[in-house]
Amino acid sequence: MISANAQSIYNDGADVYSKSHARWLRFAGGEAQCAFEGAVTALMRPGMQMLDVACGTGTVARRLLNRSNGNFELVLLDSSQRMLSKCRDIPATRVIGCMKALPFETDRFDLLTCAWGIETLDNPALAFREFVRVTRPGGHVCLVFCADLPSRSLMGHVLRQKVTYSGRGAFLSHTRMREFAEAAGACQVQSLHCTGPAAAMILHI
Description:
Blueprint: H1 4-12, H2 17-43, E1 49-53, H3 59-66, E2 73-78, H4 81-85, E3 93-96, E4 109-115, H5 124-134, E5 135-146, H6 154-166, H7 174-184, E6 188-191, E7 198-204
Parallel strand pairs: 1-2, 1-4, 2-3, 4-5
Antiparallel strand pairs: 5-7, 6-7
Helix pairs in contact: 2-3, 2-6, 5-7
């Protein structure tokens, strides 16, 4: 599951999460976030069933809905009830659950997204297996995460240190993430162009 320390931090920080995360995007993760959202938007189609894993306060889901006609079934999943409670305005099914044991049947979704969540796990490989399992053949999994890549700015470096020492998550090896995805059964793993300390990728299922 999500590490106990990270779970506590995200539960306690639900009210201020959006503000602190916006700072992260501005100085460190914004390029990866843009690449991720662009890829997801390009893949969205009417009638799709879509799962947003580790949805947090719903910021990503709202932006994606604003970019689409909204004609698809959206499920939001998070392990924090307090985070999920911030998503009440979003037209979606809200589910409490863990990334490493998704409470859905196999081949359920056409598109799965996970933004800034997998780095909070103690074993990301298990989440990759679940992502691939619940995604239909021909579907896609889109990820953006903190990555062990050089920071593009001094402020990015400072924020990376702050995230690391606060216990909010780890900076993952991009190479290892590709290996986890391939081992989980992804047909193809596509890395999106962006700079550190973040990375974005698409898993073709």
